[in-house]
């Protein structure tokens, strides 16, 4: 008679066979990819550490990357320890990786360290989840919604200008570090457009949430350069892993609480007359738009909404602040360009001190080109990563499945074949006659292709609002020479940015007395971005 427990006794052996087979298959795939990558062009590398030294060289990394571009042009291979990393440098190769035709790629390893912070929002999600969420979220950045967001930008910029005026008076003509002021401002933009104007009790809590986000970001960066810590199974037992869980809980609890409150508010508003809700609905809030989307077919869960709100806050705050800072720095270094931008604002506003409308924002074309070229020289996001899920042919070479592909906008944007005098700040780079002959993937500050940044117009409207307010009241001067920048999750100046703000004598400085004047104006796509 057969032993009824015989099959169960075979389970451990069967499990061991599966584990062994999976391990051998993984080694086989890795070895195949490693040997394929070895045949690709690339710089000399240490036999064990690969090019880890160059990747960990902080601000010098871009020097190495620029030399590699000049030497290998389209793309080349590098490695971190034994992990192959392919760096793509030419617009043609970038287009091949980011275009709609390139289906065999997902987000790369550098995003894995951010998953505890972002979950599976638009930055980190893939496949069907990304497609469905992108389709749902895209309408939340419609031009009519941006007009509602403009009211927040104008109101908070007015507060910012009061704080800046106090700092300027205190500095008495000296230089000040603008970063703390723009950080608070863009944080107010993001929090209020994402979750609504906070109650007095929630303002202190928001500061705690932002601190938690920054801690999670720091931990994510720590893990990115230590690939052995990217496994959650192992990392959770480390001290950093315990810190990560603590800050993740703080962030998730707060966001879940706000989602619950907003759902209750929206449900209550649905029970009263439309006249009573008109004022409420005029102020679009990103979270409300997601909640309303989720009510149609129950597509977005609480976790989905939380992940997208956290992604919106993380992606929007740093990048918008840095774009403002870098543009002010460059305008301060180039007085003639700054004066031309100011003259454009004079033509729009005259002697009026009114707040900008969306129509005014559209007319700021030269200032828009200043922002664009600032993002060319100092793209807020310095690295875009993809991981190949299948072998791919590019430029006559086979890139192996499993390889990570890096695109470096900081280097790509300095291609002399696309931008003559690439190190020179030049808003005229974006005149129509110059843009028409340029490769469409030569300039990608917001990435490109189907996974481009969904909030790029949001960022542009915010940046124009702030910079125009500053230029209408002050002449900006820069203390620093050429900036030294360090790649991280965003591009950061090594030593901060110190600016001097000289009041324009003919302009009144008390912006608090101006009246908010937001007019409903149809916005024509691409006229201001």
Whole-number mean pLDDT: 82
DSSP strand content: 5-15%
Q: Strand order, biggest sheet?
A: 1-2-8-5-3
Shape descriptor reads globular
Number-wise, the strands total: 12
Major sheet characteristics: 5 strands, mixed
How many helices? The count is 20
Instruction: Give the end-to-end Cα distance, rounded to a whole number of Å.
Output: 79 Å
Layout of strands and helices, then pairs:
Layout: H1 6-38, H2 52-55, H3 61-72, E1 75-80, E2 83-88, H4 91-98, E3 105-107, H5 115-118, H6 127-137, H7 143-171, E4 176-177, H8 179-195, H9 200-224, H10 232-235, H11 239-269, H12 274-282, H13 286-295, H14 302-333, H15 335-349, H16 358-363, H17 365-377, E5 384-388, E6 392-394, E7 397-399, E8 404-407, H18 409-412, H19 432-435, H20 456-473, E9 474-478, E10 485-487, E11 491-493, E12 498-503
Parallel strand pairs: 2-8
Antiparallel strand pairs: 1-2, 3-5, 4-12, 5-8, 6-7, 9-12, 10-11
Helix pairs in contact: 7-8, 7-20, 8-14, 9-11, 11-14, 14-17, 14-20, 15-17
């Amino acid at each position: 008679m057969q032993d009824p427990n015989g099959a169960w006794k075979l389970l451990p052996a069967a499990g061991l066979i599966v584990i062994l087979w999976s391990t051998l298959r993984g080694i086989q795939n890795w070895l195949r990819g490693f040997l394929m990558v070895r045949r690709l062009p690339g710089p000399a590398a240490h036999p064990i550490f690969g090019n880890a030294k160059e990747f960990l060289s902080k601000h010098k990394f871009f020097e190495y990357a620029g030399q590699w571009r000049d030497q290998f042009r389209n793309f080349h291979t590098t490695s971190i320890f034994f992990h192959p990393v392919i760096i793509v440098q030419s617009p043609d190769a970038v287009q091949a990786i980011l275009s709609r035709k390139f289906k065999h790629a997902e987000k790369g390893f550098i995003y894995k360290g951010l998953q505890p912070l972002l979950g599976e929002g638009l930055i980190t999600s893939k496949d069907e989840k990304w497609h469905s969420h992108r389709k749902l979220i895209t309408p939340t950045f419609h031009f009519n919604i941006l007009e509602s967001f403009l009211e927040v930008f104008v109101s908070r910029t007015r507060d910012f200008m009061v704080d800046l005026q106090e700092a300027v008076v205190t500095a008495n003509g000296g230089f000040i570090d603008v970063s703390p002021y723009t950080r608070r401002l863009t944080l107010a933009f993001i929090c209020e457009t994402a979750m609504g104007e906070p109650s007095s009790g929630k303002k202190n809590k928001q500061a705690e949430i932002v601190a938690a986000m920054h801690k999670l970001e720091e931990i994510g960066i720590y893990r990115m350069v230590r690939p052995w810590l990217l496994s959650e199974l192992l990392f959770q037992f480390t001290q950093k892993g315990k810190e990560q869980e603590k800050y993740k809980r703080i962030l998730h609890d707060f966001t879940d609480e706000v989602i619950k409150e907003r759902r209750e508010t929206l449900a209550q508003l649905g029970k009263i007359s439309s006249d009573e809700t008109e004022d409420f609905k005029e102020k679009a809030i990103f979270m409300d738009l997601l909640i309303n989307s989720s009510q149609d077919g129950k597509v977005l869960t609480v976790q989905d909404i939380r992940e997208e709100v956290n992604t919106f806050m993380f992606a929007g705050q740093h990048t918008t602040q840095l774009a403002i800072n870098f543009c002010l720095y460059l305008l301060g270094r180039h007085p003639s360009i700054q004066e031309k931008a100011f003259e454009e604002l004079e033509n729009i506003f005259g002697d009026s001190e009114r707040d900008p409308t969306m129509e005014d924002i559209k007319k700021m074309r030269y200032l828009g080109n200043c922002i664009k070229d600032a993002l060319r020289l100092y793209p807020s996001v310095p690295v875009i990563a993809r991981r190949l899920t299948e072998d791919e042919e590019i430029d006559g070479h086979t890139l192996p499945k499993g390889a990570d592909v890096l695109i470096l906008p900081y280097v790509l944007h300095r291609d002399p074949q696309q931008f003559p005098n690439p190190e020179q700040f030049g808003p005229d780079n974006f005149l129509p006659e110059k843009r028409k002959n340029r490769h469409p993937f030569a300039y990608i500050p917001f990435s490109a292709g189907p996974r481009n940044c969904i909030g790029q117009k949001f960022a542009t409207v915010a940046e124009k609002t702030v910079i125009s307010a500053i230029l209408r009241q002050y002449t900006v001067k820069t203390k620093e020479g050429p900036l030294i920048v360090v790649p991280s999750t965003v591009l950061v100046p090594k030593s901060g940015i110190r600016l001097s703000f000289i009041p324009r004598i003919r302009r009144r400085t008390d912006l608090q007395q101006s009246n908010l004047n937001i007019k409903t104006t149809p916005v024509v796509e691409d006229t201001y971005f």
